[in-house]
Automatic annotation (TrEMBL):
The lineage of its organism: Eukaryota, Metazoa, Spiralia, Lophotrochozoa, Mollusca. This is PiggyBac transposable element-derived protein 4-like. Residues 2-293 form the PiggyBac transposable element-derived protein domain.
Amino acid sequence: MLTVPELKAFFGLRLQMEQCIKPRYEDYWASSSKSFVSETPGFRSVMQRDRFLSIWTHLHFVNELNPTVDKTDKIYKVRPMLDMLLTKCPHFYSPSQCHSLEEGMIPCKGRLAIKQYIKSKLIKWGIKAYMACDSNTGYIMNLEIYTGKTDNVIPELGFVGSVVVRLLATGHLTNKNHIVYMDRFYNSVPLFDTLFNVYGTFAVGTAMTNRKFYPKELTKMKKMQRGQSEFICHGNITCLVWMDQRPIHFISSYHNPTHKGGTHKRRNKDGTTVDVPTPQLCIDYTKYMSGCDVND
């Protein structure tokens, strides 16, 4: 019979395996006569190998014979555990005002229909997760596993915009004047307008200039000097272009575009450095996106 302390010990060992990776589970219990250098005697002192493998083999989170189980959900076998963890995340942590949206990869080498390949990630093969994180600590407030396209889409926001709304709404991050920072993969003018007017949430991010409703006037700016910025406002939404080595486009429903935040040091081709004037919007975006390093 499996007891609660034994199950806690099992999960403790399983988590520790991510810190000292070995080819097979049996290798963690190998004696010193076989592998003196890589021996991990702590595993043997907690639980026997056969007992660990027996629990691992028979561990289930759902009753497969229950007719109410939604087997069309591609992760239905772990859905109860995932939902339980996600309800605990905001319960035991009070987040700061600023949050970041990121994509994370859960390493996976097995045969799995939802496994993804993302070339730009350090972990290229795995299960993709959309995450809403506290920008100051990287604490995950909510996440959604990507299992393919769904019908749960807000038409005017599209698939990605709908993911953002679901992450904030189910993570209890709406109507609290939070500021959400995101890269250009997520954002659009309709999404920022919806977050501000419907969900009481500010948003800041870089922009894709070819997306609908982004002002084309900002894409046609010519002969901008390094450090110069131009912006267009409509209601609570500000679209801004700032010239660094190339034009960088932003959208914000929080910042005053006239605020000159400071400077960034840049190196010239001759090796000298120069202070480039930078709007506060750009400084905040760099600060809160880089502070939440949860990509992999």
